Amino acid sequence: ILCLASVAAALEFKYHHTEELEKYLKGVHAAYPSLTHLHSIGRSVEGRDLWVLVLGRFPTHHKIGIPEFKYVANMHGDETVGREILLHLIDFLVTSYGRDPVITRLLNNTRIHIMPTMNPDGFEATKVPDCYYTRGRYNRNGQDLNRNFPDAFEKNSASIQPETQAVMDWIKNETFVLSANLHGGALVASYTFDNGNPVTGSLKGYSKSPDDDVFIHLAKTYSSNHASMYKGTACDNRQTFPEGITNGYSWYQLEGGMQDYNYVWGQCFEITLELSCCKYPPADQLEKFWRDNKVALVEYIKQVHLGVKGQVTDKNGNPIPNAIVEAKGRPHVCPYRTNEQGEYFLLLLPGTYVINATVPGFKSMLKTVEIPDNTGNFSALKQDFSFSEVSDQIRSRVVSCPKTPLYEELVRASAAVKPTLHVLVLMTIMLVIFK
């Protein structure tokens, strides 16, 4: 056991290529089999595994009430800092479990998925490290993976790549609540939307989601706990980021991005973390990058316990999947639904909210909740819904939100109405999608 632990702990501050990365992840899993689960969610164009290490008290499967969290790095193959600091995060979490009470409680109450590289082909193709652009940014087919997802605002004509499809399937098969993808080339926490139109405020240079306040909080949580991101100093003299955060669209418009896809179709709040001015810095700087990000990485994970969670059940206590559960006044263009266990998770800041649970064909249930800040307790407020008139023979049919540009429909619908009616239009479109 000591030998296995020493193998897992022998993590140097250097760049780990494919074979070394796989060896390290397998060593960690061998040393901590009850705390970790290692699996590949798919393969790259060149056939490299897309490894994910899952950490938690129940690493092999979802447990009711325990939220799912993920970190993804190296989506652009030449942006390398995130790839390495996620390996050091793994090392820190497994060696702290049972010793550090905060990390122990975090892992006991959270299922954490870590993908060190989404684009292993691009990383291996970057033969000469560079602070700026290299061809390794793209996958083997020359595609930018962060322009490759379905887009909620305009039709994305890019052919879905194997790496993208693997992540989409992964999102579909898990109940992810919160996520971040790690990039390089700037120092800022960027939040959704990356794309936009007049419905979301693009004419004013800002694309606002229904949960804009939560996204701002998430971005500030990371930047304020980072060694210097919160200062907002840019990598050059041309641009600054107040408090170290930015709305994605305000920074630059991006079609087919992963964070918007997570939010619209995955019911998962994701932000983009730009961690280094230099995309591929010298290896002797990696230890400092780890120190700069260590606290922020952990504090951000804790935010998965914001808000409210619960189950929707029938009169016999059986879970009702595909029930719509949303906070009043925060309708999502693709309504948020319960999973197969009838669970829902809504990230909300502390305050008073009305939660609306709807089972098609039955009267909606409304419950007013007072949400505290429970991140320190590692558990969101619990609020269940029981539909006494629903029997276990009745189930909501499986509903998949179409991969069409959903916000295009809102633009058409709102063309003849005043801006003050946008919320009403959004609710109408939701009903059309549901039907």
Radius of gyration: 21 Å
What is the strand arrangement across the widest sheet? 1-2-4-3-5-8-6-7
Shape: globular
Content of β-strand: 15-25%
Unreliable sequence segments: 1-8, 416-425
Broad structural category: alpha/beta
Order of helices and strands: HHEEEHHEHHEEHEHHEHEEEEEEEHH
Number of strands: 15
Number of domains: 2
Alpha carbon gap, first and last residue: 56 Å
CATH T-level fold name of the largest domain: Aminopeptidase
Count of helix runs: 12
Mean of the pLDDT scores?
92
Can you say what the CATH homologous superfamily of the largest domain is?
Zn peptidases
Determine and state the CATH class of the largest domain: Alpha Beta
CATH architecture of the largest domain: 3-Layer(aba) Sandwich
Largest sheet: 8 strands, mixed
Helix % is: 25-40%
Protein name: CBPM Carboxypeptidase
Pfam families: CarboxypepD_reg (PF13620), Peptidase_M14 (PF00246)
Domain Peptidase M14: 14-304
Keywords: Carboxypeptidase, Glycoprotein, Hydrolase, Protease
